[in-house]
Amino acid sequence: MLPRPDRAHLARALPRLALGLVLCGTGIAAMVLADLGLGPWDVLHQGLSDRTGIPIGTVTIGVGFLVLLAWVPLRERVGIGTLANVVVIGLVVDGWLAVVDAPSSVAVRVPLVALGPVLFGVGSGLYIGAALGPGPRDGLMTGLARRGAPTWSVRAGLELTALAVGAALGGTVGVGTVWFALGIGPLVHLALRHLSLDPPPGAGAPGGRVSAR
Known about the structure:
mainly alpha; 8 helices; 72% helix; globular
C-alpha cells in the first residue's frame, strides 16, 4: 500500500478524487454516446462488452481488477485512489449510458466526441493531482517500465495491444480514437499544472504523461 495520507491531505484530496473520477467516467460515456471512436483501453472494453453483453462500465471495472492482479509480481503499491478508480469510473459510465440515449445527429455526436477527452483530461488532473494512488493501467505501465524498458515504449505497447484486441472484438475505432491519443497527454499535463495538490509525506509528486486509467 502507499503511505497513509494524513487527515489534512485527505480532507483536500478526497473531493478532488471523487470529482476527477466522475469527470473521467463522464468523458468516456460522452465518447461512447458519440460512437465516433474511443480511447485505446475503451475500445477493448467496448469490444468485450459487445461480445459478452455485459455493460461497458462493468467490463471496465472487471478489467481494472484483472490489471491489478498483474501488480502483484511487479510490487506496485495500491492507494485509495487506485481502488476508487477501478470502481467509480465504470459505475459512472454505466450510469450515464442507462439514462442518456445515443444521439443520431452528427451535430450532437461531434461535440460529444470532442468534449470527451477534455473531460477525461481535467478529471485525470484532479484525480492524479490528489496523490492518492495511480490508476491500475498506469501502475502496470510504471511497474513494467521499472524493469528496464522506456516508459513511452511500455505505454505505447500496452495501448496498441488494447486497441488491436478491442478492434478485433468489434470496439469502435475512429476520429475520437485519434483525438484521444493525440490530445490526452497535453490535456492531462495542463490539468496537472493547475489542479495538483502537494503529495502527502512519502509519496512521489504527480506528473509525467499519465492518465487516470
